[in-house]
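Researcher: Next sequence.
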Amino acid sequence: MTTQQRLVETLNNKGALPLEWQDTVASVDRGLFIPSAIDGGDFATGPERWLRAVYSDAPVVTQVNDGKSTPEGAFRLFTSSSSKPSIMLEMLGLLDVREGQRILEIGTGTGYNAAWLSHRLGDGNVTSVEVDAAIASRAVENLKRAGFHPVTVLGDGRAGHGERAPYDRVICTYTVRDVPRAWLEQCPDGRIVTPWGSSFFSGSYATLDVVDGKARGTFSGYPAFMWDRTQQDRVVGHTPAR
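Model: Next structure:
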């Protein structure tokens, strides 16, 4: 059994892998999206530990302190990760992805979620926006290595990407305090799913159905995602999706 098959088996045993995502999860190797050196492990010096981390149903931290040099003993703020696969599937279930839809992803990260969407819907239906230039560049390389070529954009996710609008779905991979007007304008008749939180509440999923540019929805769950970088200085810290 390959390592990717172990991940699929783990997700199936948890009842976390819906039938419509089975082929995608089995076909897209998570290892192609994780750097050889991750927080707490290095493939070169400890390959077995790296493999266990990558192919388990757990988040993997891929950047600390926005990629800045971090002296030993200094505060370590997690600023990018590969989310827990079962959490990714939970969000995609809320998004209600269907063939033929056009998707805007806010927060490319490693590119793993964009690869899932591209496998399911086709590259041309997926647009992903990332604010961090280094992360965006690595994501593009990861996606190419895996054989996917969605439209990737370097920019502020709060502005979306109007050039390819309208979209049927918008998914955000970090916690926001509010839903930007641009997302509603670019997805005027569809669905938006994002982690949401405030100074008084650690986080929940906001699932919004948009009709004629007006949104109504619900909150559910208690996920823990990293914060929007434009708002992270207003919180104590943030956590990789778990």
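Model: The radius of gyration is 17 Å. The chain has one domain: 3-234.
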